[in-house]
Amino acid sequence: MDQAKAPLLDALADYHRSERYGFSPPGHRQGRGADERALAVLGKDPFRDDVLASGGLDDRMSRGGFLSDAEDLMAEAVGADSAFFSTCGSSLSVKAAMMAVAGGHSGGLLLSRDSHKSVVAGLIMSGVQPRWITPQWDAERHFSHPPSPEQVEQAWQDYPDASGALVVSPSPYGTCADLAGIAKVCHDRGKPLIVDEAWGAHLPFHEDLPTWAMDAGADVCVVSVHKMGAGFEQGSVFHLQGDLVDPHRLSKCADLLMTTSPNVMVYAALDAWRRQMVERGHDMLGAALELAADVRARIEQISDVEVLDDELLGEQASHDLDRLQVLMDIAATGTSGYQGLDWMREHCQLDLGMSDHRRMLATMSFADDRHTVERLHGALSSWREAARHFDPPPPIDLPTPEEIQLDTAILPRDAFFGATEMVPAEKAAGRVAAEQITPYPPGIPAVVPGEMLNDAVVDYLRSGAAAGMTLPDASDATAQHFRVVA
Ligand SMILES: Cc1ncc(COP(=O)(O)O)c(C=O)c1O
Q: Which GO terms describe its molecular function (predicted)?
C-alpha cells in the first residue's frame, strides 16, 4: 500500500475544496452558528473540520472507503491483519475486545488485577466473570508489576475454561510484561490474548522501545493514540491478527458501544499519525529516547530523587520498560507525590502525569525538546527546594500484598446493578462492594464491584483520600462511607 497517502486527511481537504455543505448535523454548520465567544477561544478551524463522517466526508454508503483505507494502511504500518479506528478511547476498544472474546461464555476471562477501570466497566456491562491473575508485588516499594508467563499459566491451570486472557502492558508507569511468553502460554491452549496497550501506540516504530504486542504474538491489542502518539484525545485503535478472534464479532461488539457520530478530526489525526510515524517515526522516537536518557540522568542528580530504571526490571518484576516514562521515587524527601504535583501546578504552571504517596511520573513524548525538558528539570529543582519546608504528608495505611487482594464474592455486574446501601467505613469490612473505587490516575481500581471489602483496604482508601489521593468514581470520595450490596 502507499503509506504516503492519508485518505481521511485528503478527504477532509477535498470536502473544503469543493465547498460542500450539508443540511445535516452538525448544526453549527462549520462554525457559522457557533457563539463568537466560543470562536474566540477555540478558533474557527475545529468547527470547520467538524463534519459528518458518512453523508458528509464520505457519501451515505461510505463508497469512498476513506475510513477503511486508512484502517488498512494503519494495519499494514504496524504489522497487524486489521485495524479499527475508534473515537471513544481505549475505554471503548478494550470493552469491545473483552466482549468479543468472552461475552456470552460462562468460563470467564483471565485478567491481570492491575487492569484499568475501563476493563472493570467492561465486566459490569458484559456480565463476564473475572478470573484474576495476581500481579507481581514489590512489597518494599508498594508497586505492582505485570504478571509473568508463569502466573498466567497458573491462572490457566486454575480456570482452564476461561475464554481468553487480558493483560495490561505497558502499565501507565511504562513497565511491560513478557508478552511473547504470555502469548505462548495462551496459544498452547488455543486461547486468545488481548493486550491493553493503551500506553503503547508508539512501540511499533522504534526497536529500542519495548516489544509491540502484535510482534509478540498477541491476538488483539488496543492503543490510545492520544497518550503516546499524536492523536486527539479519544483517538484509539484496536489491532487484530490470527484466527482466534473473529474480526466480525469484534467489530459488532465495537458497534454496540460506539457513537453513531464519530468525530472526523479524531479519525483524521489517527491517519496523519500513522503516516508521520511510517515516514519519520524512527528518527523522532530515537531523538525522544536520547532526550529521555539525558533528562533521567539529570533528574537523578536532584537530591533524594531516584529515577526508577533497572530497579523495575527482573524475574520477580517487570520484563521491560518504556524509558519515555520517567518514574521518580521521592520517598527520601519525606514528602508525597501529591504534594509535589500540586506545588508544580501552582508555582510552575507545569502538570505531571501521575503521582502517589511516594512517586511522581513525567511522561515524555516525541514532541518534547530541549526547551520543554529544561522546564521540567527547572520545576523539579525548584520543587525540591520548596519541599524542604512542606508539612509532613498525612500517613497512608498501606495494605500488604496479601491484604490488597480482595476475594471476589459475586459477579461485578450483579453487585453493581443489585440493591445497594451506603455504610460507614467502620462497618464496611466483610461487606461486598457495589462500585469500583479507583485511585486516579493511574486508574487501577483498588476495589471492584463484587469484591469483599476488608479493613486494610478500607483504611488504605480512607487514609489515602485524607492524604490527597483522588477517588473520582466512589460515591463518597473521602472514603468515609462505602457503597455495598444491600
Ligand atoms: C491501561 C489503560 N487502559 C485503558 C485506558 C483507557 O484509555 P482512554 O483514555 O483512551 O479511554 C487507560 C487510560 O488511562 C489506561 O491507562
A: carboxy-lyase activity
Best of 86, 88, 90 to mutate for ligand 1, by most ligand atoms within 8 A of CB? 90
Return the ligand 1 atom nearest residue 441 CA: 14
Task: Say which amino acid occupies 203.
Answer: L
CA 338 to chain centre: 20
* Nearest atom (ligand 1) to Cα of 93: 11
Pocket around ligand 1 at a 6 A CB cut-off: 89-91, 94, 116, 118, 168, 172, 196, 198, 224, 236, 442-443
Which pTM was predicted?
0.96
**What are the chain's domains?**
63-272 (3.40.640.10), 281-387 (3.90.1150.10), 412-485 (3.90.100.10)
Plot region of 324 (φ>0 → left; ψ -120 to 50 → alpha; else → beta) = alpha
- pLDDT in the model for residue 479: 97
Alpha-carbon distance of 75 to 68, in angstroms, equals: 10
Contact, 236 vs 90, CB < 8 A? yes
| Distance between CA atoms of residues 68 and 7, nearest Å | 9
Q: If DSSP codes are grouped into helix, strand and coil, which group holds residue 68?
A: helix
> Ligand 1, closest atom to CA 94?
4
Q: How confident is the chain (486 residues) per 10-residue block, as mean pLDDT?
A: 98 97 96 97 97 97 98 98 96 96 96 94 96 89 92 97 98 96 98 98 98 98 97 97 96 95 97 98 98 98 97 91 98 97 98 95 98 98 98 93 93 98 98 94 91 97 93 96 98
**Looking at residue 79, what DSSP letter applies?**
T
Q: What is the pLDDT of residue 134?
A: 86
Q: Compute, in angstroms, the gap from residue 201 CA to the centroid of ligand 1.
A: 12
Taking CA atoms, 446 is separated from 170, 223, 227, 436, in Å, by: 19, 23, 23, 8
Residue 196 CA: nearest ligand 1 atom is 3
pLDDT at 315: 83
Contacts of residue 244, defined as CB under 8 A and 6 or more positions apart, other chains included, come to 164, 187, 190, 191, 192, 219
CA distance 342 to 280: 36
The closest residue, in CA terms, to atom 1 on ligand 1 is 116
Q: Which residue, among 339, 341, 337, has the nearest Cα to 352 in the 3D structure? A: 341
